[in-house]
Model the fold of this input.
Amino acid sequence: MVLLHRRIYSVLMASMAIFLGAILIMYPEQAFQSSLRGLQIWWEVVFPALLPFFIVAEVMMSFGVVHFIGILLEPLMRPIFRVPGVGAFVMAVGWISGNPMGAKLTARLREQQLISREEGERLVSFTSTTGPLFIFGAVGVGFFQSTSVGLVLALAHYGSSILVGLLMRFHHRHAKPTPVNKEKSEFLLLRALKEMHRARVNDGRPLGKLLGEAVTSAVQTQLLIGGFIMMFSVLVHLINHIGLTTFLSDAVGQLFIWLGVSDQLSVPFLAGLFEITLGSQMVSSVPEHVPLVFQLMIISVFFGWNGLSIHAQTASLLSGTDIRYLPYLFARLLHGCLAGIITLIIWKPLQPLIKALPPDLPTMTSVIPSPLFSLFEFLQWFSVLTVLVWIGYIFASLRKKAMW
Done:
């Protein structure tokens, strides 16, 4: 029986490859234009947005920052999400930078044996999120010309992500967790600093080599992401061009009518299942009589589902570990459904706030000004101090070598 299943799988994969090759040969111009569009999206948006995060995250892991955060947040992350404290680092960076950062960092933690397989499957389920830059910038301002729309989408997306994390904590609940550091005699912050220093010493790479390898790893991952974006851009365009989605769009349209949703959203819905950027742009272009709340609900489903393009990127990043894809797939289905439902629930209560906000509210400044505390002033001073400490560390290292 197993042999028969393998043969059927081989035939199906070969048939799919032949079909894709045939439509590429039949429609070379359309394939070229759609590939060029995918390349443009990757080069102008994805590459500059994600490359700094990839490099900095790799450097932070080498300097032991992950171990530092892990010790500090162990009492929070383990009882709530049933993952070690290092998961807080993946959660923060994944939420800030967006997909597929959560999957990449989860795979790195698994490679370093900082998390178990089951903990990695729980972690990647709620850290694979869409970044705020895409939600507020590309979709809110770019597609809908309103950051208040981005506010609704962000609340629904990140709120449902937390719910997914709480639900996925029951995934393999009897699996053995990673051991907890039992050193309770020292102050928590002091233990975290010692663990960070120990991790840095164990890494042992000089600064120049560390930066070079971080850049190399980041660029390789970006090339992988760019290839998937181009491939799925071609796939979506050619499937639409040959009319393969007509039957599916009719079926989805009937389902939407039964649910009380406009059938004008059926074609954008199918496109968004493959690639969320294309699907979100098509949703924003539907006729004006389609209620905005239904448009945002569909886009929230896209964000939670992630799109097959990101699914392929995640599966590729996790393939080097023993973390399985199926729990991630289940979590994406759950996230999409929860995000759509939450969007419908919060739409009316948020109307007074949305109307009070200006439509061109800057996304990178504070909504509520505070005379006592400015987040960006704090970040500026913190950045200056970090650079000074880094320069001092480099000069001290050079001086020490010169003395030797």
About this structure: The chain is about 75% helix and 0% strand. The first helix runs from residue 2 to 26. Confidence is low (pLDDT under 50) at residues 363-373.
